[in-house]
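Subject: design request, 435 residues
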């Protein structure tokens, strides 16, 4: 790290913290609007913009390292060691393409450490501030996906990455496409509104957001479910609601009738939304998509269990010829497949755990999975402790983190960004404003 010694770092601790906070906000803004740059404003630079947050990550790590602002964690140290070994095994026993290996390694070397930097630099008030910004962004975001839903794929607002006139929408139902919002792909829209649900629900029970803004954001979240034609968003919101109900049951400071109020408010919002003529088509498309996909996957049980737990089993059994050290880091990403074969595809597996086992082999891949699971277990236990002590913000954040840090598809940059950012905010929510 000697090459970072000449960086212009402010002298005071307060200025150093503010500098790092500014970098984290830049990372967040680029996460939300990276797709807009790649599709609408700078389509000619869509390829390099795919990793536009990487230089920010490098800079944050450099400044944090210089100023001892990285949380010393066994999970971070273990992940870095496994990644460095994986780089070597990929070069020696795997595909051997340096560019592909580095692209795969950046996921764990550059972005995973940001979770711990955010956990050191930010505090609970910073998390609330980001939550309020999410509420503001949700209003134009729902307008954008509404326009995308009803517009043809050839319309400018539906342009794909690089200005692709074929559109960025993904197959939905009844002739409608799943809209991507400001993101490169539709998963970004799902992740954004799933993450938004955490703050919408939190502000239901805790002061900290403008009431009118909260109402509009709640309406935007409710409307986003049919417009997105995404079962993933629907299930994510349901899980956040379940976490909210648990928080109410455990937090003795909340009246016992709070759950009844929650049910009435939810029912009112759903009823209000369903009365709009504008939402009839998206509701029909969402219902059709839900029924069709559930029939294929075996109903609700198949959808939930197979999606979250099934990949763990198939990761070890899908490829009987898997080398012990795997095929090499980065091969399971779309960029890696393009560099290796000239075509974008899933060379190893679409699921995250399958990709890790395929790239790193049984030993190293399993270690990465265990590190992520162990890290999430520690976050869960600490969040529960805070909840019992009367601080519910970490518990609300946990509902999103548990869906995206253990098994999120980190090979996709947007999914990686939301997993890292939410994990960092969860760690930051443990810090009081005084800390």
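Subject: RE: design request

Done. Sequence follows.
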């Amino acid at each position: 790290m000697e090459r970072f010694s000449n960086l212009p770092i402010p002298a005071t601790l307060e200025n150093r913290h503010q500098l790092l906070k500014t970098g984290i906000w830049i990372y967040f803004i680029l996460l939300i609007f990276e797709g807009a740059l790649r599709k609408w404003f700078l389509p000619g630079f869509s390829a390099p913009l795919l990793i536009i947050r990487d230089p920010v990550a490098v800079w944050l790590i450099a400044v944090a390292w210089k100023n001892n602002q990285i949380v010393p964690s066994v999970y971070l140290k273990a992940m870095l060691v496994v990644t460095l070994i994986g780089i070597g095994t990929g070069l020696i026993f795997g595909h051997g393409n340096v560019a592909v290996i580095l692209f795969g390694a950046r996921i764990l070397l550059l972005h995973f450490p940001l979770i711990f930097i955010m956990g050191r630099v930010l505090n609970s008030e910073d998390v609330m501030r980001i939550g309020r910004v999410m509420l503001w962004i949700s209003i134009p975001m729902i307008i954008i996906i509404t326009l995308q839903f009803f517009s043809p794929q050839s319309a400018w607002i539906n342009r794909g990455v690089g200005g692709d006139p074929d559109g960025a929408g993904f197959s939905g139902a009844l002739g409608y496409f799943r809209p991507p919002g400001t993101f490169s792909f539709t998963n970004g829209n799902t992740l954004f509104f799933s993450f938004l649900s955490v703050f919408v629900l939190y502000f239901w029970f805790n002061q900290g957001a403008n009431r009118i803004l909260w109402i509009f954001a709640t309406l935007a979240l409710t409307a986003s479910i049919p417009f997105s034609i995404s079962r993933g968003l629907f299930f994510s919101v349901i899980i956040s609601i379940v976490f909210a109900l648990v928080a109410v049951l455990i937090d003795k400071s909340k009246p016992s009738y709070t759950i009844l109020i929650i049910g009435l408010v939810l029912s009112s919002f759903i009823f209000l939304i369903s009365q709009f003529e504008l939402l009839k088509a998206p509701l029909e498309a969402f219902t059709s998509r839900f029924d069709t996909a559930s029939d294929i996957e075996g109903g609700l049980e198949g959808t939930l269990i197979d999606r979250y737990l099934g990949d763990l089993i198939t990761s070890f059994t899908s490829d009987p010829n898997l080398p012990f050290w795997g095929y090499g880091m980065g091969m399971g990403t779309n960029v890696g497949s393009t560099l290796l074969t000239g075509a974008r595809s899933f060379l190893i597996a679409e699921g995250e755990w399958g990709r890790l086992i395929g790239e790193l082999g049984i030993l190293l891949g399993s270690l990465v999975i265990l590190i992520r699971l162990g890290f999430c277990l520690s976050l869960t236990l600490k969040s529960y402790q805070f909840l019992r002590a009367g601080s519910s913000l970490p518990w609300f954040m946990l509902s999103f983190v548990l869906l995206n840090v253990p098994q999120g598809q980190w090979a996709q940059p947007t999914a990686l960004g939301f997993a890292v950012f939410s994990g960092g905010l969860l760690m930051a929510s443990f810090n009081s404003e005084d800390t």
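Confidence is low (pLDDT under 50) at residues 1-5.
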